[in-house]
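Following up on my earlier thread - several people asked me to post the actual chain instead of describing it. Fair enough. Here it is, all 315 residues.
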Amino acid sequence: MDTTSKVPRILPRRGGQDAMSGKVFWSPGKSLWISGMYLGGVLGIASAFSREAFLLFLFSTGLTILGGHSLGMHRRLIHNSFECPLWLEYFLVYLGVLVGMAGPFGMIRTHDMRDWAQRQRQCHDYFAHRRSFFTDWFWQLHCSVRLEYEPEFQPETRIAQDRFYWFLERTWMWQQLPWASVLFYFGGISWVLWGICLRVAIINTGHWLIGHFAHNEGQRYWHVEGAAVQGYNIPFCGLITMGECWHNNHHAFPGSARLGLYRNQLDPGWYTLRVFEWFGLAWNLQQPGDLPHRAELKAIAEPKPCCIKALLKLA
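Reply from S.P.:
Thanks for posting it. Predicted structure:
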């Protein structure tokens, strides 16, 4: 079976689909949302700095990136790379909504459409991050793309019929308000600007920044034949991205819960999952050796893996 271009939730339409032909357009809601967060973040830095606000920013940013974006949205909801109790999944996905990018369905669709497009032999520059640095920034944070021949997005029944996820999808922007109220009560406007606006602005910008470089330059051990876009590892960013910067590893083994596969590749998300596993809160943690063989995946370097036994199974 050809696994190169297949993404489980992306289904072909009659008449075919094309990842290349499309139009990028300004998205008012998306653009105004991030612009408002930028403005609040700048105001926080310029006029509302305090040690407590800064510590709040560090804690809330780390918590939502690790628990929300990396574990809840990416490794669990999108890739199903581990299992956990439903209440924990809900909590992690809720933290992912607080990241301020989109609701659960928006996150899954955006991710899967990008994955599908990158696995084709040709894809639009929007999906490939091929344009110049500032053009790509504007496209990714202020615009959307509409393909002329777009495949169908069909989430699995478990997610598609989940009322809690639909609630989060409809209210994802509003989910910041309860926390803004709490932060204002305890720390005033300074805590709101640092704990909400600056956090959302930094995470969204950082997510784009890592994505830009992770699809253009960096370290590679694996090549996916037939794919228009390859992933690259971005060294020295493992801690601040919670392991999400090891993108060449992820392109090679998208279903793996472990992203930092080799020596010196920090992966706090994986370490957290192992702690969850020890407490019985996570199980079936997928690693490269647990995944189906991919004929299109070719090794192009000889790294020293931490999980050498698992990787050898792929030879």
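The chain has a mean pLDDT of 93. That should answer part of your original question.
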